[in-house]
Amino acid sequence: MAGNQTGSISLICTANAAAPGGHYAQAVVHQGVLYVSGQLPIRADGVHSADQPFEVQASIALDNLVAILSAAGRSTSDLLKVTVYVAGIEHWPAFDRIYAGYLGEHRPARAVVPVPALHHGYLIEIEAVARSG
């Protein structure tokens, strides 16, 4: 597993997802559970995508989630709970279609929360909880 060890909490960090923009880790593992911080649709190289269509933003945010899961030795089939913040509930059908493409038959618990706005003008942010090995 990638990351630094701090007591019984392992910090997960990968260059294959957007670097944290503040004082937080991309993800942490504690007692067999992986907690993934909210992922905005910022590309791994730091390029912002707030000017891109919702579908592009959703794919980038999901790519970040998948990269962090991979860095922790996990996959989307290990997801237990996903929370999605969407600026505008009208994006829900597009998100559901894209999300299903990433997760296939796996169906973790999920909440889609409509919000009036997200940081930097983004249209989506995704956080997740997964089992860890």
From TrEMBL:
<comment type="similarity">
    <text>Belongs to the RutC family.</text>
</comment>
<dbReference type="InterPro" id="IPR006175">
    <property type="entry name" value="YjgF/YER057c/UK114"/>
</dbReference>
<dbReference type="Pfam" id="PF01042">
    <property type="entry name" value="Ribonuc_L-PSP"/>
</dbReference>
<dbReference type="InterPro" id="IPR035959">
    <property type="entry name" value="RutC-like_sf"/>
</dbReference>
<protein>
    <submittedName>
        <fullName>RidA family protein</fullName>
    </submittedName>
</protein>
